[in-house]
Specification:
With about 220 residues, the chain is of the alpha+beta class. Helix content is about 20%, strand content about 20%. The strands form three sheets. A five-stranded antiparallel sheet has the order 7-8-6-10-9, covered by helices on one side. A four-stranded antiparallel sheet has the order 4-1-5-11. A two-stranded antiparallel sheet has the order 2-3.
């Protein structure tokens, strides 16, 4: 349509899952690294930039001075000034976040039973870690929290990400199935295996032969 504005052509504003604060692990609530977030339309898509717990000022995943208490983030969320809450990851907290994006279809069943709602690939990763796992705000992703260390920063390949610092993760409290732990479990061996399987090291380049052919 001629003369259409960006507001006319943008996709509808997403409706995030309601935060279920009672399901969020207590140890996460005690870490004062919380932020809030709200949807903003940037680069032709809806994004979730972090805000401080007051819901007014932007937060930074790498700046602890912009983080706050869980209670303050939740209070701002309940006031409906923001769309959700999240926690900033830092190495000294000893928690690693695994992000599986677009692995769920909320139109194909409930999250309480696998059914067709979560892909087989995601189920294998969830069962591999067997730690606190929840659904992302969109209802299409999965977030897993485990205790451990992640060498040399984060990793991203396709729709799989894993981080221990420099990122914030949204938190919803929409946990998966009672058979899986609602506690953040220590899983360093599982992290190591996961990295080997999904993020193997790049092969070292072969040395170039010398011009005289004797390697000197």
């Amino acid at each position: 349509m001629n003369g259409a504005t960006q507001a006319d052509t943008r996709p509808p504003r997403p409706k995030p899952l309601t935060v279920m604060a009672e399901n969020i692990p207590v140890e996460l609530k005690h870490i004062n690294q919380w932020v809030t977030w709200k949807y903003e339309f940037r680069d032709n898509k809806w994004t979730k930039p972090p805000y401080q717990v007051n819901g007014r000022d932007y937060a930074k995943s790498s700046d602890p001075s912009t983080w706050g208490k869980f209670e303050d983030a939740l209070k701002t969320y309940k006031s409906e000034r923001v769309d959700g809450i999240g926690i900033a990851l830092a190495i000294d907290m000893g928690i690693v976040g695994v992000d599986l994006d677009h692995y769920c279809d909320p139109q194909k069943g409930s999250f309480g039973a696998w059914g067709r709602s979560i892909s087989k690939a995601a189920i294998e990763i969830i069962e591999h870690f067997d730690s606190y796992t929840e659904v992302s705000p969109s209802g299409t992703g999965v977030r897993i929290f485990v205790k451990g260390k992640l060498p040399a920063g984060g990793r991203k390949k396709g729709n799989i990400e894993i981080y221990s610092t420099g990122r914030y993760l949204t938190v919803t409290g929409h946990v998966l199935r009672n058979k899986y732990s609602r506690v953040i479990e220590p899983r360093q061996p599982e992290i190591d295996v996961f990295l080997t399987e999904h993020f193997p090291p790049e092969p070292k380049p072969k040395p170039k032969p010398s011009r005289n052919g004797n390697g000197s």
